Amino acid sequence: MRTLTPLHQLAAEQKSAEVTDWAARISWVVGLLLFIALVYWLMRQGWKWRGSLQSDLPELTAAPDGLAGETALLTLTGRYHASTTAGQWLDRIVAHGLGARSRAELTLTARGLDVRRPGASDFFIPAEDLREARLDKALAGKVLPEGGLLIITWAHGGTLIDSGFRSDRAAEHPAWVEAVDHLTSTTEGTAR
């Protein structure tokens, strides 16, 4: 019959410390860093590929001269989230910098919508190209509470585009929907 050794005697025995296999540990870390670099490179190549697929989209319109002196119907400061093909909330447009999220300052005038984006390319949407505005909750993978995004639909080079904005004060969104819809109905009326 075996006798059991008391635990306090086992704890008192001297044990040598395990030797760390530094070569194996370093190779794992290097392998992990290489894997992360490969994934990043593949994502960057995918972004470039998407931009080349959308190369038929014309350059963005710059704000016309004298726009700063016009009366602003509405202004908004907040974030520009993305632009997608209209009705396709996951089909992000990356051409001409439209895929870059940034801060944004929007100014709506009778001539159109001026979008100023510090750190990204600014653009102007003429009033005749505006189609509608609505409140939504998702665009290009960004999901917010219901009505958290102001989506402005506009035409550019034969393509309908949905651009998503979020104001610093979300209570401003309904006024923007009304103003853009009023401007588009006025523009449609004068075009006829």
What does this structure look like?
This protein is α+β, with helices and mostly antiparallel strands. Helix content is 30%, strand content 30%. The chain is built from 3 helices and 9 strands. It has a 7-stranded antiparallel β-sheet. Strands 6-7 form a two-stranded antiparallel sheet. A hairpin with a 2-residue loop joins strand 2 and strand 3.
Key attributes of the depicted protein:
9 strands; 30% helix; alpha+beta; 192 residues; seven-stranded antiparallel beta sheet
Short description:
The protein is of the alpha+beta class and 192 residues long.
Q: What's the overall geometry?
A: elongated
Strand/helix succession: HHEEEEEEEEEH
Q: SS-based structural class? A: alpha+beta
Q: Provide the residue-averaged pLDDT.
A: 87
Strand order of the largest sheet: 4-3-2-1-9-8-5
Helix content: 25-40%
Q: Which strand-content bin applies to the residues?
A: 25-35%
Radius of gyration from the CA trace?
28 Å
| Major sheet size, sense and barrel closure | 7 strands, antiparallel
Strand segment count: 9
Q: Ends: how far apart?
A: 105 Å
- The number of helical runs is 3
Q: Enumerate the spans where pLDDT stays under 50 for 5 or more consecutive residues.
A: none
What secondary-structure arrangement, pairings included, does this model have?
Blueprint (H helix, E strand, L loop, with lengths): L6 H6 L9 H32 L20 E12 L16 E8 L2 E5 L6 E4 L3 E7 L1 E2 L2 E2 L5 E8 L2 E9 L5 H19 L1
Antiparallel strand pairs: 1-2, 1-9, 2-3, 3-4, 5-8, 6-7, 8-9
